[in-house]
Fold this protein.
Amino acid sequence: MLNDIERTLFHEQTILRRLDELATQITADYLGRDLTVIAVLNGSLFFMADLLRRIQLPLRLDSISVSSYHGGRQSAGVVTFEQASLPDVTARHVLIIDDILDTGLTLRAIRDRLLNEANPASIRICVLLRKEKPRAHELEADYVGFDIGNEFVVGYGLDFDERYRNLPFIGVLKPEVFSAPSPST
């Protein structure tokens, strides 16, 4: 698995230091508010768990399962919601946590559906990574761990073909790895 990594972008300790900073900011911003955190499965699980342990507020936690990549390395252009109902966030302040802001398609679809169907008091978005590139779908994150170039990254929850999530760092995947035929096909 490590042989598939071209280079490390962020070591575990760098990530954890940044999470301390994000948690301090989020705690201050939501002090005295009813906060519900919605984790976007599966990529945000590592990020969400480490971040929430640092937030010094009572909060509710829920999750949402969506997909726009469908096993590939580029978005298929369609967001599929894997569950029939949304979390109950009526009149609550919502913080959506996701691993990466890439095209903006997935996060925009989640935000818009929550706004249209769930009646939250507010919605903000927190991402571990934000790719610095033009987005097909206009959307900005309110909290960002790190900005990165337009590279294919894995680790710390981010995957390629459901692999590499368990790496404790974020690294750039070698192009020959994601260009090769999938071992599951």
About this structure: The first helix runs from residue 12 to 30. The chain is about 25% helix and 30% strand. The longest strand covers residues 122-131.
